[in-house]
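Input/output pair, single chain:
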Amino acid sequence: MPAWLCGHQQSDKHNDTSGTKRAKLIPSGVFPPQIKYPASQGQIPPGLTGRLFSGIFGATTSLTETLVVKRKIMGPSWVSLKNARKVESNQQVSWCAAELEVSGYKSVIAGGDVANRPVPPLVVASLHVQTHINPGSHANEVVAASVVSLSNVKVTSTPVHFTLLDFPLTH
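Output:
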């Protein structure tokens, strides 16, 4: 049996399921245990069941979403990384110029001692795709695409750029 199953813990604060889609699946008054599962073990297969359980909530939640929610990272902001180590280029899993690794999600701190730095500028892009149904194949086909890209956008200022296009309908 994997170590993460042997060391499961039931939270002292029971998981409140009222008002959620979980409420339909869990009888009233039943509090499911909270299992701690390390990210190093890979994703749990969706739909996994067992002799003593009928499902796992949150199995399809991405690691990024879990990190953002647990560490309360909201919007573009600075984060501090404790004891981060640089991943060698031949072991990177992304196309980023620099990839860092930390021991756990508690090593990621929103704001912290860097909270007073200015908000980083962003590159903002807006994509619009216009499609049309092909009468022969009844499939959507792209007939036009446009991109507006702005660099060095400060999220604390009011945007001053906009694009308006209007094509009159002809019959």
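The helical segments are 3-6, 63-70. Residues 63-70 form the longest helix (8 residues).
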